[in-house]
Amino acid sequence: MKSRLMLCGLLLLSLNGCGSGSDFADLQAYMDEVRARPKGSIEPMPKFQQYEAFTYNASAMRSPFQPPVKIDLAVKQKGSKVIKPDETRVKQFLEGFNIETFEMVGTLSNDQGMFALVRGAGGVHRVRVGDYLGRNDGKIVSISEGKIDVIEIVPDGEGGWLERPRSLTLKERS
What we know:
The protein is 17% helix and 28% strand. The protein has 174 residues and is of the alpha+beta class. The protein has a domain at 98-169: SH3 type barrels, CATH 2.30.30.830. The strands form two sheets. The protein has a four-stranded antiparallel sheet with strand order 4-5-6-7, with no helix packed on it. It has a three-stranded antiparallel sheet with strand order 1-2-3, with no helix packed on it. Strand 4 (132-133) and strand 5 form a beta hairpin. InterPro entries: PilP.
């Protein structure tokens, strides 16, 4: 039993001796280096760049995804000073949108006549002959079950005005 106690004591002394010494010298050197670094060496925050708002100014122009209207210069119509839009007329709601955004989706008829249903401008709207549609003073001249005929008044580029016929055909469900 005495020998066992001595063996345990020697074992404890040998284990205790393994932890001491210069085994942690490299760790101690690293910690000394970190402590020696200057304090407050944090880089300043980057400069904040002010956001500049962008206003899209081409919304009234022709969509680049629509094919351009081909104009033959030899057959180009001359505008008239007699034909011009009525500037004193109160604009209707649907005149604030391009006519390309509208599609005919149906018709209604009653005692008062025939009405067309057009989808666009955030919903479905009921229009009749005499109403205006689109940005070019497009007046609805006739409504049939398959299409809406519109006459637009557009500038000819030389100070005159032209009447341009246009049609919206019925968009059937697919």
